[in-house]
Write a structure and sequence with these properties.
about 10% strand; two-stranded antiparallel ribbon; globular; 7 helices; about 170 residues; mainly alpha
């Protein structure tokens, strides 16, 4: 059996978000989950419990809570968090959990290999500029917007700027 190329230190493992989540899952499941394999086994044996815990622990802010975690339909037709509503733009632009050491929010790479890296404040500024452009063009609530666009950070900004204009977006003008 081949040896791993790298192993994290015990200190790094102790501080990891996965370690915190595993401890929370152990408490919620009411049984020992001493390692990743045990956590995985619980996650696939109690789908509703795992995904409810994940939604709670991740800090996702639902505007309307889910009636249930998943429908009775078999995969791939399962409907997750039925009845729940949330604002994608709010969750991406103003996450409830922000790590100060967090890597860039968006990394774009052109076909020529050039990179664009946007941290959270830069992404917010770009979204605000796009939103201001939409508003100055007279685009408002209820209007339809279509784009033929490349898979680049600016296209993401258009999507987020537009979703911020929709009713019940839950986005404050920060």
């Amino acid at each position: 059996m081949e040896q791993p190329l790298w192993r994290p230190s015990e200190a790094r493992v102790a501080e990891a978000a996965m370690t915190e989540f595993r401890a929370l899952a152990q408490e919620r499941a009411g049984r020992e989950l001493p390692d990743y394999d045990a956590l995985h086994a619980w996650s696939v044996s109690d789908l509703d419990g795992f995904w409810r815990l994940y939604a709670d622990a991740s800090g996702i802010r639902f505007d309307t809570p889910a009636r249930r975690v998943r429908s009775d339909d078999p995969m791939p037709g399962t409907r997750w968090f039925e009845g729940a509503t949330l604002s994608y733009a709010r969750e991406l632009l103003y996450p409830s959990r922000v790590d100060s050491g967090r890597p860039p929010q968006v990394i774009g790479v052109t076909e020529a290999g050039a990179q664009v890296r946007l941290d959270l404040p830069a992404l917010r500024r770009l979204v605000r500029r796009v939103q201001d452009g939409l508003l100055s063009a007279g685009v408002g609530r209820g209007d339809a917007v279509a784009a033929y666009a490349a898979n680049v950070p600016e296209t993401l900004a258009v999507l987020l700027a537009w979703s911020r204009r929709q009713p019940n977006s839950g986005i404050s003008e920060q």
